[in-house]
Amino acid sequence: MDTFLIESIYRDTIMVAIIQASPLEKxxxxxxxxxxxxxxxxxxxxGDLTKRKLMPGLYNLACEGCMNPRFEVLGxxxxxxxxxxFRKKIGEAAAKSKxxxxxxxxxxxxxxxxxxxxxxxxxxxxxxxxxxxxxxEMEKNGSSPNHLFYVSTPASVAGPIIEGLGAAGLxxxxxxxxxxxxxxxxxRDLESAQTLNxxxxxxxxEKTVYRIDHYLGKETVQNILVFRFGNSLFxxxxxxxxxxxxxxxxxxxxxxxxxxxxxxxxxxxxDMVANHLLQLLALTAMEPPVAFDxxxxxxxxxxxxxxxxxxxxxxVARFTARGQYGPxxxxxxxxPGYRQEPGVNPSSMTETYAAxxxxxxxxxxxxxxxxxxxxxxxxxxxxxxxxxxxxxxxxLFAGISSVIAPNVITISIQPDEGISIAFDAKRPGTQMRxxxxxxxxxxxxxxxxxxxxxxxxxxxxSMRGDATLFTRRDEVEAEWRxxxxxxxxxxxxxxxxxxxxxxxxxxxxxxxxxxEIRGSNAEHMISHRD
Length: 530
Ligand code: BG6
Description:
This protein is of the alpha/beta class. Helix content is 35%, strand content 20%. It has 15 helices and 19 strands. Strands 1-18-17-16-15-8-14-13-9 form a 9-stranded mixed beta sheet, sandwiched between helices. Strands 4-3-2-5-6-7 form a 6-stranded parallel beta sheet. α1 (48-63) crosses α2 (83-96) and α8 packs across α13. The chain is globular. It starts with 13 loop residues before the first strand and ends with a helix. The relative contact order is 0.16. 6-O-phosphono-beta-D-glucopyranose binds next to loops.
């Protein structure tokens, strides 16, 4: 049996309908909001995230006309260079980034005048008074009084930066606003997240704190709420009476890339499940919020996290799977195993694949398992949510037709953003034969363009003071409350035989076992997957 099940499930499906948004329009033809004036102070400005994600996002915003004329960047990093060198380095990276839309030399020349760089050692307390002087100087010369701090550094130095900002009085302003954006990972377990939150709250007010989970900025992730709460068609069936089980998958073909030091300490569960995938689960499972605003949405997500059944060590042994890739091939090219990647311990026990079966113990979801899985160096790049509905109560066409497959709603997060619904129809002909068909809505097909990239949306929201797509203190702690017992149990359970899947494969076989423990319920599921 195929362990990954991505293609096989629709083997017999015929696509019947392309649902197009009407009228056909480009998202960027809508009037776009503009960010407040501000100075964006980036800690970790010479790092990878700044080059690959933040700067392309900012450049796109400038090109779309969303950037306030008084928007500037002050990059902080340890690498010695001046602003000219910083602009050149960032410009070269932005030109290559897949997140940059319509890069042009002239567009970049206009944009780069907003970028400045300052060398600084964030561990040196005197640095923060230098930073304050620099910001005061900029303001005297016409820069905005609003300060948006962006902490894009390893989690271990986030605390000292926040304390340094507080000690220098940079945490609030008499005239103008101050906000702080914190990158993931937010701690590495419940205790460290609580400690970091205490440090944050000792210096900043929660209303000014923006914890990033970039999945929340993705178009299709935001669309989950519109799909569920903007249509009367789906919500009535969105519960245990009609839904059999839900699968949330984030498969990547990339390996550890150049992040071995980070990944060795993190692993797939902390890197992807503790944040991105739990957020997808929360948006899929949450109750309707009373309003579409930051606190109402976050309140409902927290309720979902609180309803997830805590796992004992025995549960972890039964309901989770982990894996690590060995050598293999991706797109026909040989690639090394995780343990052979530069910077990785040759006997590393870090997992590059994690799968968990979650139970949500609440009124709506009792008895409906949520299967979460993610892995690196898998056969394809794909992030999606599959909602499997129950079979019809009576098998009316059994005997006169092939098996009727239960309906499946697929929300594709990437790479082909959209929604598809698989349902059964009569096959043309004089006989009563059925076939599974599929109605598809594709963002690309309907809007002719991809929407803004996640960081673009989130950066603009932080400049406008909208925290709806950011995570709150209790939310990140609730996420760790779910994940930490799994990490602890894994540390105590017998070590798995790593590597246990080949790069370019469908992942470790143990994923099958997770599905099979569904017992009798699994029957129909397996019958239409073989
Ligand atoms: C990051 C993880 O948060 O998300 C990476 O640290 C992962 O390991 C990435 O590759 C995936 O993001 P996206 O947007 O490419 O799905």
